[in-house]
TrEMBL record, chain A:
Residue ranges with Basic and acidic residues bias: 51-61
Residue stretches of biased makeup (Basic residues): 62-72
Source superkingdom: Bacteria
Protein name per its UniProtKB record: Family 16 glycoside hydrolase
From TrEMBL, chain B:
SUPFAM superfamilies in UniProt: Cytochrome c, Soluble quinoprotein glucose dehydrogenase
Keyword Iron: yes
Matching Gene3D superfamilies: Cytochrome c-like domain (1.10.760.10), TolB, C-terminal domain (2.120.10.30)
Keyword Nucleotide-binding set for record: no
Protein name: Auracyanin family protein
Keyword tags: Electron transport, Heme, Iron, Metal-binding, Transport
Domain Cytochrome c: 565-647
Cited InterPro entries: 6-blade_b-propeller_TolB-like, Cyt_c-like_dom, Cyt_c-like_dom_sf, Cyt_c_ID, Quinoprot_gluc/sorb_DH_b-prop
């Protein structure tokens, strides 16, 4: 087969990140509240205690309560969430008296928001954008078909007037994690727009919402306020509000960026059109001039030629605010942008293409603007575009749509989904989504939506996720690259051969399996579950791995069996990263990303090798069974 | 009465006209491939995508097909006999782009990208429940690291071939990033692996011929043209990437990459801090050829049969020997080779000369709906063809599919085989030839050429030379013709077209009039005496007439620029291999001629682009065009003028 052209897609300008961070050393960014919100150092959740259940108890009859109280007097009931003093985490623990919402001192229109949130079992809260549009925070772990009232949904309001009813918008998938684990949100919010008379001209819109790295909303409009707004109206600006009356919630890494419309204007724009096979920008000359005119926007189609042309735009850039601006010029051929006689970007070519980006500080006032473009490359379509943004403004285009049309991927995606039986599919997989590419990996998806990736080359469970199975477009479209992408929020584990005989406790596990010590034997299908039983041989011991969903179809149970007993200096690595032991014997891994719980009685050891903290258990040949809960 | 007479007259005239027409129709009704071999599509159930990576006839009469989507289908009643559709049974799924199937002792074996896998149905429900890894090899996870196979060796072991990866910055250079990319592996049921041979670039085809392993490779860097190689243990064929592992303890090859590149320029040059892609050097003074490399390195294995690039395919695939005992027609025992890009099948006949395999290749059957990847004969002698083009583009109407080829029972007039003779070749026909046409030296036209051995992508036909016939000798039964020439060149492809040799019975020329013989060795034996040869040339009689027409033609040409018609340009496009990648209307591998016309090149600019293509001009086409300096300037100008007339 033939060699491949590397198509480098130039991605431009779309990657936004929140810049301001609320340190959470204090509550100065927020309005005063009853005291249910506090700054703490750490939080620990007992994942078995349901706060929703506790809350209902409060409303129970006095008789029942008394009965319970009696019971409880015997042993203090475990708390759902406990904290340690310190800073860095915002914690709400509401009770009958104190249950205020937390409201920012500042108000926002368009907003980028990033934060991490942690909820105990059964808890419920919400982030109200502009105090009016609630993105639901809720323990929705295990919900198969999420609603607007679930984690990541936009909550319905309870209006009865047809015109005001909002029925809620569920997330496109349930990407939420188990109680007591940190979950990340990344939101790009666009405020509603109003005309001078105060009439709404555009709905509030969530450009994107990512939960735990999974896109759960894409350009979703919320046409009115959701349930429980700060006020029952819509406005251009409002504060961010976090609900505090439905259960405990902890928040950290709170970052935001206020965005406004760019006030930069391009005025007095005129253009000169040239004809000729110009090979460089300096070849434009008076003699080649064919037309002049005025323009509102940059529009390469106004040249009227497919090729062998030049165009020069001259105008004034009106800057209302001094700021650092990111200037982006998209083009085919060659291009040069000049502000106030200073070159901003240049590609002195006749056949180039792409986007050129440059950050410049522009003072308040007017700036002389010159943009020159030539093209002498018949195979490239005419393209010229200019976009300007600053870190606090949305990007603004100064060109017509088809002068530089957006890069839209029109490939039909190829999704793979299990039907009534589990679906297995081998492919290359990038660990962590963008890390090391593994070559001998297989994805297993169950009809119940519990999925995992297993590395046959190391006998290792490398990742688990819930929801839809995989996107195989990268493997099967055109030539393909042999890989697929999991469609959910993958909880990645680690890269090692996890079962090994180690010469001493300071020896690291092998990076991967290597012949002749380690030999993969493939798998057989268990015809009762249609799930694979993986087999390999390590040091003359036959080892079998079964990875199955737990009975509630929420997480996985990893079962490992050995053909020999009496093994010495053998260990099994369960996890990599910081480890916290929980009261139920489970271990919290990697800064509260997931839980490991051993079911077969082996006592885990926490050790540090080469700077990496590991959770391991000794192996003697008896069965190992542990849960991965995320 | 008068009326009636007139009426009758008209009738007669009509009859005459009809007769006249039908005569013309008959005369034009030249034999076509489909008269002898019929293609039938096997419809797949909605939603089932058969990008055929493996096709295998099973002992129970079913056909097994493995697909790029990772499934293995068992197809019951694949020829749709009894007017009943075939049934598709999903035997296995989830495999990693498997590219081959073999059957042994009740199990199916397939090469996934990273391992040889044994698939077993232990409980008889026709669904595999064992996916056993026989042997796994490392991969760097480059997209081009395809693995092909297995083919079952006579000792019941398995052969698997492995593609090279390509460089990152040097995206044109084949690389063996991990063992044993660029190699053929021999794998045993117990999990042992024996590195067998290297030099593979994109070894998509493999098969046993006379119980010996053969493989096909694709044109590219270090592979001037596709071809068929005999692969005994320990040989090195073409691409040097795999030599990286020759110092490995298990390597049967001792030739190191240092020794190799010490002799043959790697063409790895940096300019302004960036690597420069090696291109064909036009008018190169002393180009390297593989046979010269063989003189330095005895491990080098020459291609047994070159399949000239662009003529006999552009991306050769499966090798299949006709063991149907005549059910597939008159070519029993011969070899069929598929091609992905041109969606066709070629025919090869091997002979052993001086202990080495070499032989002849012919076109056989084109017109498949997509790239021909894998083939196997069912028990009735139908040739099943698994198809895909995998994003590279191919002739035909689809990107993938499954078809089968059936012999109609008619015998085509063809060259059955061509053998090397000490003074030329012996051609054997399927039917007796018309003696007078076969004895006419003007019925033959020949040239010979060779391909360069270099780091550039592909190679033009180099050192072109006309083959002049000294004479011919036609056997008494009309089945054999010896052609004699002084222009034999060892290692060169000898391409001879029989444009005037007619079948005795029908007066038609052969269905495929050209043979391509790779003459690594010239056979020993008795030469023919001059007295045994016919040396007549019909052109010496016709000369006068030819002169006249020629004169009138040039007169017209002087007045206006002559643009050839579609029919006139066709032979030029075919001979110069343009049609390998271009079609008048449709995108194949390259852009359509109509699209090229839109670029507004002058004829001269276009000729220049034929000699020095600029792949960057066509960024949306995956396969870069190779320089074609062998196209004669006058022909290139005619082609360019024709393309420009399509605007």
């Amino acid at each position: 087969m033939k060699i491949k052209f590397l198509l480098i897609l130039v991605l431009f300008g779309l990657c936004l990140s929140a810049q301001e961070e609320i340190k959470l050393d204090n509550l100065n960014d927020f309005k005063a509240q009853a005291g249910n919100w506090q700054i703490v150092g750490d939080v620990t959740v007992n994942r078995h205690v349901d706060v929703h259940h506790e809350a209902t108890e409060e409303n129970d009859s006095k008789k029942k309560k008394k009965r319970r109280k009696k019971k409880r007097n015997a042993i203090e009931p475990p708390k759902a969430i406990v904290s340690t003093p310190g800073t860095g985490i915002l914690l709400n623990i509401n009770d009958k008296e104190k249950h205020d919402a937390l409201i920012t001192n500042w108000e926002h229109g368009d907003l980028l928001l990033e934060l991490e949130v942690l909820l105990p079992k059964g808890s419920n809260s919400g982030i109200y954008f502009q105090g009016r549009y609630e993105l639901q925070l809720k323990d929705s772990w295990g919900v198969k078909n999420p609603l607007g009232s679930d984690m990541g949904g936009f909550h319905n309001n309870w209006e009865t007037d047809e015109a005001k009813i909002f029925r809620g918008i569920p997330p496109t998938s349930n990407a939420s994690k188990a109680p007591g684990l940190w979950q990340t949100y990344k939101v790009h919010f666009q405020a509603p727009r109003f005309d001078e008379t105060g009439k709404k001209t555009a709905n509030a819109k969530f450009i994107s919402v990512d939960l735990n790295g999974v896109r759960i909303h894409n350009n979703v409009e919320v046409p009115t306020y959701t349930g429980g707004p700060i006020e029952k109206n819509e406005v251009a600006k409002g504060p961010l509000l976090i609900q505090g009356n439905h259960g405990p919630v902890a928040i950290r890494n709170f970052k935001y960026q206020l965005l406004k419309e760019s006030s930069v204007e391009l005025t007095s724009l005129s253009h000169v059109i040239y004809k000729g096979a110009f090979k460089g920008l300096d070849e434009l000359n008076e003699n080649a001039k064919v037309a002049t005119g005025k323009s509102n926007k940059i529009d390469i189609l106004s040249v009227g030629e497919e090729d062998e042309y030049g165009i020069m735009y001259i105008g004034t850039l009106d800057v209302a605010e001094k700021d650092d601006y990111i200037i982006s010029v998209g083009y085919t051929g060659g291009v040069k942008l000049i502000f106030d006689n200073k070159k901003i970007v240049e590609d002195n070519s006749s056949s180039g293409e792409g986007w050129l980006n440059e950050e410049v500080t522009l003072s308040k006032g007017t700036h002389k603007f010159i943009l020159i473009n030539i093209k002498s490359a018949a195979w490239r379509a005419p393209r010229l575009g200019l976009s300007i943004k600053s870190k606090s403004t949305n990007s603004k285009d100064f060109h017509t749509y088809d002068s530089y049309p957006p890069n839209i991927n029109t490939v039909s995606p190829i999704f793979v989904q299990p039907d009534s039986k589990p679906r297995l599919l081998r492919a290359f997989v990038s660990f962590n989504g963008n890390g090391k590419r593994l070559s001998h990996t297989i994805g297993v998806g169950t009809p119940e939506g519990v999925n995992y990736i297993y590395d046959l080359g190391a006998g290792n469970l490398v990742g688990v996720w819930r929801g839809e199975f995989v996107d195989a477009t990268p493997m099967w479209h055109s030539r393909g690259d042999g890989s697929f992408k999991p469609k959910g929020a993958v909880q990645w584990t680690f890269l090692n051969q996890p079962i090994a005989q180690l010469s001493d406790s300071n020896t690291a596990f092998p990076e991967t399996g290597t012949a002749p010590e380690f030999v993969s034997k493939g798998y057989v299908i268990d015809k009762t579950t249609w799930l694979p039983i993986f087999k390999y041989r390590y040091k003359d011991v036959d080892i079998e791995n079964r990875i199955t969903p737990d009975p509630s179809n929420n997480y996985v149970v990893h079962d490992i069996q050995f053909s020999k007993s009496g093994l010495t200096n053998w260990y099994c690595k369960l996890a990599s990263g910081e480890v916290e032991k929980m009261s139920d014997g489970a271990y919290l891994i990697k800064d509260k990303q997931y839980y490991i719980k051993v079911l077969t009685g082996q006592i885990p050891i926490v050790r540090k090798v080469n700077g990496e903290t590991e959770l391991i258990i000794p192996v003697d040949g008896s069965n190992i069974k542990y849960e991965i809960i995320w | 009465m008068i009326n009636k007479v007139i009426h009758n007259k008209i009738k007669v005239i009509i009859v005459l006209i009809v007769i006249g027409f039908s005569q013309i129709v008959l005369a034009q009704n030249a034999p076509k491939e489909e008269d002898y071999y019929r293609i039938t599509k096997v419809p797949t159930p909605e939603g089932v995508k058969v990008e055929g990576g493996g096709v295998l006839s099973l002992p129970d009469g079913t056909i097994a097909v493995c697909t790029r989507r990772g499934d293995v289908w068992i197809i019951e009643n694949p020829t749709m006999a009894n007017g009943y559709p075939s049934k598709f049974i999903k035997f296995a799924s989830g495999l990693h782009e498997p590219l081959g199937l073999a059957y042994k002792d009740g199990a199916l074996y397939t090469a996934q990208r990273g391992e040889l896998t044994k698939l077993v149905d232990t409980d008889g429900d026709r669904i595999a429940d064992v996916y056993e890894t026989v042997y796994a090899w490392p991969l760097s996870t480059h997209y081009h690291e395809y693995s092909f196979g297995p083919v079952i060796a006579p000792d019941n072991a398995f052969f698997v071939t492995a593609n090279v990866a390509f460089g990152n910055e040097e995206w044109w250079r084949g690389e063996s990033r991990v063992p044993w990319r660029g190699w053929t592996m021999k794998i045993y049921e117990d999990g042992r692996m024996e590195p067998w041979a290297t030099g593979m670039r994109s070894p998509a085809g493999y098969g046993l011929i006379d119980d010996e392993l053969f493989y096909t490779d694709n044109q590219g860097d270090w592979v001037g043209s596709g071809g068929l190689w005999h692969l005994p243990k320990g040989v090195f064929t073409a691409h040097p990437a795999g030599l990286k592992w020759s110092e490995h303890k298990d390597s049967p090859i001792k030739l190191t990459k240092e020794a190799f590149y010490g002799k043959i320029d790697k063409r790895q040059v940096k300019k302004n801090g960036r690597y420069v892609k090696p291109e064909n050097i036009i008018d190169e003074e002393d180009p390297d050829f593989v046979y010269e490399a063989k003189a330095s390195f005895p491990e080098v294995q020459l291609p047994a049969v070159v399949l000239p690039h662009g003529i006999l395919g552009i991306s050769n695939s499966e090798i299949k020997v006709d063991k149907t005992g005549g059910k597939f027609g008159p070519f029993s025992g011969q070899v069929f080779v598929g091609d992905m890009g041109q969606s066709k099948i070629m025919r090869v006949v091997l002979e052993k000369v001086k202990g080495e395999y070499q032989g002849v290749a012919f076109d056989f059957r084109s017109g498949f709906q997509s790239g021909v990847m894998r083939m196997d004969f069912d028990q009735n002698g139908n040739l099943f063809v698994g198809e895909t083009n995998r994003g590279w583009g191919s002739a035909g109407t689809t990107n993938s599919g499954l078809e089968f080829l059936t012999w109609t029972g008619r015998i085509p007039f063809e060259m059955k085989t061509v053998k090397s003779m000490p003074d030329g070749f012996e051609i054997e026909f399927t039917k007796p030839v018309d003696k007078s046409s076969a004895e006419d030296l003007d019925s033959y036209q020949g040239k010979s050429y060779i391909y360069k051995y270099h780091a550039a992508y592909g190679s033009p036909q180099a050192n072109l030379e006309t083959i002049n016939l000294k004479g011919v000798n036609v056997s008494d039964d009309g089945y054999k013709v010896r052609i004699v020439t002084d222009n034999l060149r060892p290692f060169y492809v000898h391409e001879i077209t029989l444009n005037g040799v007619k079948e005795k019975e029908s007066g038609q020329i052969t269905l495929h009039p050209t043979f391509y013989y790779t003459l690594n060795n010239i056979a020993d034996g008795d030469k023919l005496e001059l007295s045994q040869l016919s040396t007549k040339r019909s052109s010496s009689i016709k000369k006068k007439v030819a002169k006249k027409t020629k004169a009138s033609k040039t007169a017209v040409a002087k007045k206006t620029k002559m643009v050839l018609t579609d029919a006139q340009v066709q032979p030029l496009l075919t001979n110069n291999t343009c049609v390998a990648c271009h079609h008048k209307e449709k995108r194949i591998v390259g852009p359509s001629f109509k699209l090229i016309a839109k670029r507004n090149y002058t004829d001269e600019e276009m000729v220049d682009l034929i000699y020095n293509p600029q792949p960057k001009n066509w960024p949306e086409y995956a396969t870069p065009m190779a320089p074609m300096p062998q196209v004669p300037k006058d022909e290139a100008l005619k082609i360019a003028a024709w393309i420009n007339s399509l605007k």
